[in-house]
Fold these 3 entries.
Entry 1:
Amino acid sequence: MKTNALLALVLAGTLGLSSTAIAQETATTETDTASSETETASEEPAQTEQTTAGGELSLGEEVNEGPKVGQRYARAEFNDWLIQCVKTENGNDPCNMFQLLRDTEGNPVAEVVMQPLSGQGQAIAGANVVTPLETLLTAQLSIAVDAGKAKRYPFSFCTKQGCVSRIGLTANDLASYKRGNEAKVVMVPAGAPDKPVQLTMSLAGFTAAYDSLSK
C-alpha cells in the first residue's frame, strides 16, 4: 500500500510539472506569435510608403514646344503675308515675308519669299518666286502690280521643289507694291505653252510685313 501510494504521488508530481511546462511553453509560443504579427503589421505600411516615394511614380517632365535650332516657324501674320523665321542658337533668327499663291480652284501653285536687302545696288528688296517643275523656263515669269506695266524675270535654277526666279525690287517697284492692291503673276506651263497661268499675289498687309522686317 505504501509503495502504491508513493508511486501515485510521484506520477502525480511528474504530470503536474509536465502540465505546467506545457502551459508555459504554449503561453510563450502565443506571445512570440503575437509579437511577430505585430512587427509584421507595423512593417507593412512603411514598405508601402517606401514604394510610393521610391521613384516608381513619374513626376512628369516639362515639354518645350518651341521651335528647335534649324526649324522654320511663323513669327507674325499681316493679312495675306506671313513672317517666317529660322531658329538659330544665338537667337538672331533670320526672317522673311511669305505668301502661297493658289489657282482659281484653291490649289497651291507657287510661293513668294521676300526680304529687304542692303548693299545690292539698285535693288533694295529681293524675292524668290518658286513655280512648278513643269514651267516653261524660256517663257520666263512676269509680274504686274494692279494696272501697271508688267516686268519679266528669268528663271535662275530648278530644284526638287520647283523652279526659282530671283527678282530684285527697286525703290519705285517697292513703292508700287506698298500702294497696290494685288499683283498678277504669270507663268507658262511646259505642256501647254499656249495657255499661260495667271496667279494673284495679294498685297494686303504687304507694307506692314515689309516694315516689320526693316526695323
Entry 2:
Amino acid sequence: MFNYRGSTALVTGASKGIGEVFAEHLAARGMNLVLVARSLDALESLASRLSDKYGIRCTALNADLADPVSADWIAAELERRDIQVDLLVNNAGLGLSGNFLSHELTQEQGSIQVNVQTLVSLSYLFGKGMKNRRKGGIINIASNASFQPLPAMATYAATKAFVLHFSEALSYELAGDGVHVMAVCPGPTATNFFAGTTTNMSAKDMDSSKSVVEKTLAAYDQGKKVAYPTRFSVRLGTLLPRFLPRSLVTKIAGAATKNMGLH
C-alpha cells in the first residue's frame, strides 16, 4: 500500500470539484499537498484550511495548464522550493460540449493541451524522479468517455481515450520500478463540469465527487491499474464497444449525448 503519511501529493484542478475532494482526502491521510489551479484565491483558502485542520504542509500554485510552459514552470518552482512529489494526481480537465465546428479552434486546442500535453509533461517530469527513487504513484483522471467516439464531445472523448491508453502503457512500463500508475474512468459527476452547457442532467443522475474519490483511492490501494468509480449502469455502457460495431457504438453515443441535451 502507498505510504501516504508524510509524503507529498500534487493535485491539478484542485480548487473545486473532484480535485478539491482529492485534496481533502489525501490531507486526511497525512499527505503534504501541492495544489495547482487557475483560481489562486480559492487555492490559498483551501490550502490554509487543510493546513490548519490536518497539520500538513500545503502549497498553492497558480498555473494555467492550457499554457504549454506550465508543466515546466511547476517542476522548476517545486525544485526551487525543494518539494519532492511522491504522488501525482492529474485531475484537471477541459471538456467542450456541442459540435466540433461550433467552437473556436483555440478552445479545442486548449482542451488537448490540458487533457493530454500537460498531463504527459507532468507525468514525465515527476515520473522520472519517482522511478529513480523506486517509489511513487500517478493517478490520471480519464473518463467513461474513453471507450467510444462521443459526438457532441468529440475532442474530450478522444483526449480521455489517450489518457486511458497512455496510463495503462505507463503502468506496465513502471511496474518493476516501484511506481504505481492508475487510470480513473468516472461517469458524469456532480461538479461544475457541465456548467454553462445545455445539459438537462441533474445531480441525482450523477455520481458525487466524494463517491468518485473514495472509490478511486480504494482501487488505488488495491493495486488496480484502472478504476471505475461510477454506478453499474454507466460501467455497463463502457463494455458495449467490445461487442458492437464501432459505427453502431457511435450512433448510440450520439443519441445519448443528444438525450443529455449536449448537441
Entry 3:
Amino acid sequence: MGQKIEKDLQRFRKLVRGKVKSNLSKYIGRGEMIGKKGNDLVSIPMPSINPPQFRFGQKGSGGVGVGDGKPGQPLTQPQGEDGDPQAGDSPGGHILEVELTMEELAEILGEELALPRIEPRGKKNIVSVKDRYSSIRTVGPESLRHYKRTYKQALKRQISAGVYDPSRPVVIPEREDKRYRSWKEFPKPEAVAAVIYMMDVSGSMTDEQKEIVRIESFWIDTWIKAHYKGVDRVYIIHDAAAHEVDEHTFYHTRESGGTKISTAYELANRVVDARYPPSEWNVYAFHFSDGDNWGDDNPKCLALLKEHLLPKLNLFGYGQVESPYGSGEFMETVEGLVGEFENVVASRIPDREAILGSIKEFLSTGR
C-alpha cells in the first residue's frame, strides 16, 4: 500500500511540475511565489489542480440521468425562481497551494527557457575542511572512547567464549574490546559566487518598475544558486549618489532627484576589490534603470565598465525598465559594449510580461 501511495504522490508531483512549467510566465508576472517564499520552499497557488477525492452530493439534487431534460440544457440547478443569479449558501472550492523546493523551481526555469548550465571560472571549488565523527576505531584517546560500542564488544567476546553468566550479568571490557570514536575530514564548500544588484531609485523610477526588478532578481537568484553551494548578495541603490543597503531597503526605498549611474559602478568596483577578488569568486552584476542619466556621465560609465568592472565579472547585465518619466538613452551606451565584450547583456523590460524573456537574455550565456 505504501509503495502505491508513493507512486501516486510522484505522479501528482509530475502533474504539478508540468502545470507550473506551462504557466511559468503567469506566475513570474504576478510575483505570487516571492511573497510565499520560505527558507527552502516556495508555495505556489494552483486553482486548477485538485487532489483526487470522493465528493458526496445531496440526494435528489439532479444530475445526469435524473429528472426531465432537453438536449443542450445545462446540468445545473436553476438559481432563483426566474433563473436569475442568487447568492449561494454552499462553500466554494479552495485554491490548492503546492510547495516546491528552490532546486525544483530552478530546474523548471532551466527547462522552460532552455538555459545552459553556468560555467564557473576561476577557483570554483573553494572549500574548507570540516571534521565529522562518523566512524569507530580500535585505538584512540580515552576521551573519545565509545562506551556503548566497547560494552557490546566485550559482551560479544564473553558470550562467544562461554563465560557470560545471565544470572550474574557482569561485563568487564578488556583492552581489545575498547572502541573509540574517530573522525573523517569532509570538504565543506564555501560561497563562491557573488551577485551585485544595482538599481536606479531616482524620481523617475515608479513602484511598478521596482516590483519588476524585484521579481526578476528573485528568478536570477534562483538560477545562480542552483549552480553554487552558496551565494553572497550585494544591494546598491543610486540616484545622484550610490549607497550599499540591505535587501528590504533595496526594494522599498523611495528617493527622488537626478541620476548619476557612474556612482553605482564606482561603488560596485570598490566592493569587488575589497571582498570578491575575481581569482577566487564568480561575480555577477545586474543593473536596473529606466535609462535616464546625467548628460556628461555616460563617458565615465563606459570607462568604469571597460577598464575596471567588466574584466572582473562573469556577467554584467543591464536591464532597462520603461518609465513614463525616463528617457531611456543609457541603453544605447550599453548596447555599444555588447559586441565588444562577451560578458555584457542588455535587455529591455517594458512590463511584467517581458520578465521571462529578459531572464532568458541574461542567463542564456551560461557564464
